[in-house]
From TrEMBL:
Keyword tags: Oxidoreductase
CDD domains named in the record: SDR_c
Keyword set includes Oxidoreductase: yes
Organism: Isoptericola sediminis
Short name of any one Pfam family annotated for the protein: adh_short
GO MF, any single term: oxidoreductase activity
UniProt keyword annotation of Oxidoreductase present: yes
Annotated protein name in UniProt: SDR family NAD(P)-dependent oxidoreductase
Lineage: Bacteria, Bacillati, Actinomycetota, Actinomycetes, Micrococcales
Record field: compositional bias (Low complexity): 72-92
């Protein structure tokens, strides 16, 4: 193959002997193998740089391009080539097939016109993509996060370029969803009616199994993922019941569907989100208030585990072989905004796995 560039996909890099050798060497230095690239095999290096948020830098990518160019000029490597599309290095054993097109976000104009939607976790990742989408579809978005800078960035990005339709707005509220005073400020910013609530804010654990989980992690993960989610639901439901209209979307996780995707604290918290969702859906059946959840698989966001527990991470990694492609936050915003919209009519108490099929494996 000719020289590799940032426009080539991970799969093309792996199929090239020199590209494969360069990636193998880089990953070995991090204690990993090319199997770690399975969920991003269809991404170009350019896209990987964008979604990795600094974990795969442009400098590192440029260095790989240069390393491969030099290796080819020197006559190439003796490393065995992986045939294009065979995917042997990433555990994908399907025969070569055409690459599916990348997701392109398509706005539904006016879908949220006249509605106020509270979106938590709006400074980053899935929450930010959801807030952006709802606002560009006409909604007045109360964008909540603990990180003020990210909220301002979102507002500047949307307002600054004049992308928002009439009546649409980003109302940033810097608040911790576990704090009652913060929740009260969110409700105040929302004003009269809240038509939709997307409970997206959440935090990970350290992948610790129950015999090593520490109290601080357990308490904080439950406080944010479960108690914070409940507090916002509790705050908005009375108004929704009075209006006989409202849609709540909670964000669970693959870890809310099975036991093999994270540590004990996060897994238990995301199962609790499923329980909270189903209970509320049952309680409010027939009132006009509907409550559903989305369970994302792997998504390229700011979320990354800190101070990882080796035993737990090892167990989780051993079960990740069939993980689907990693998604971009806009793909999750597509699922969440559907459930937030009137088009999800008749869907209540459901957990929508938005994971490319991972949970079907
Ligand atoms: N990224 C993934 O692969 C993945 C997979 C499954 C589920 N999820 C879930 O998706 C949701 C969004 O995660 P993300 O990947 O976009 O992560 P992210 O870290 O990019 O965004 C989460 C946001 O929530 C905010 N937040 C955290 N605690 C808060 C609090 N107490 N009050 C207010 N804001 C708070 C953070 O500041 C951050 O901006 C989470 O609930 C997460 O558990 C993510």
């Amino acid at each position: 193959m000719a020289d590799l560039t940032l426009q080539h996909t991970v799969r093309e890099w792996l199929a090239d002997p020199e590209g494969n050798a360069a990636l193998t060497e880089m990953l070995a230095a991090q204690g990993q193998t090319t199997k770690a690239l399975a969920p991003v095999k269809r991404m170009s290096f350019e896209k990987l740089i964008k979604v990795s948020r600094g974990k795969f830098s442009r400098e590192a990518a440029d260095q790989l391009v240069e390393q491969v160019r030099a290796a080819k000029a020197a006559g190439g490597t003796t490393a065995p080539a992986t045939s294009p599309g065979s995917g042997a290095a990433t555990g994908d054993t399907r025969a070569e097939t055409p690459e599916p097109a990348e997701f392109v976000e398509e706005i539904t104009p006016g879908r949220f016109t006249g509605q106020t939607v509270v979106v938590t976790g709006a400074a980053s990742g899935i929450g930010r993509a959801t807030a952006s989408r709802v606002a560009r579809e006409g909604g007045r978005v109360v964008a909540v996060d603990m990180t003020a800078a990210g909220l301002e960035e979102l507002r500047a990005e949307l307002g600054g370029s004049g992308r928002l339709p009439d009546g649409a707005e980003i109302v940033p509220v810097t608040a911790d969803i576990t704090d009652d005073a913060g929740v009260a400020r969110i409700l105040e910013a929302a004003g009269g009616s809240v038509h939709g609530l997307a409970n997206v804010a959440g935090i990970m654990d350290r992948f610790a199994a129950v015999h090593t989980v520490d109290d601080a992690t357990w308490d904080r993960v439950f406080a944010v993922n479960v108690t914070g989610t409940m507090k916002l639901m509790r705050a908005v439901v009375p108004g929704m019941l009075a209006a006989a209209e409202g849609r709540i979307v909670n964000v669970s996780s693959e870890a809310g569907l099975r036991g093999s995707a994270s540590g004990a604290a996060y897994t238990a918290s995301k199962h609790a989100v499923v329980g909270l969702t189903k209970n509320a859906a049952f309680m409010y059946t027939g009132t006009g208030v509907r409550v559903n959840a989305v369970a994302p698989g792997g998504v390229a966001t700011g979320m990354s585990p800190q101070d990882v527990d080796e035993f737990g991470m090892g167990r989780v990694q051993s079960a990740m072989g069939l993980m689907a492609d990693i998604a971009v936050p806009e793909q999750l915003a597509a699922s969440i905004s559907f459930l937030l919209s009137a088009d999800s009519t008749n869907i209540n108490g459901q957990v929508l796995a938005s994971d490319g099929g991972w949970s079907a494996a």
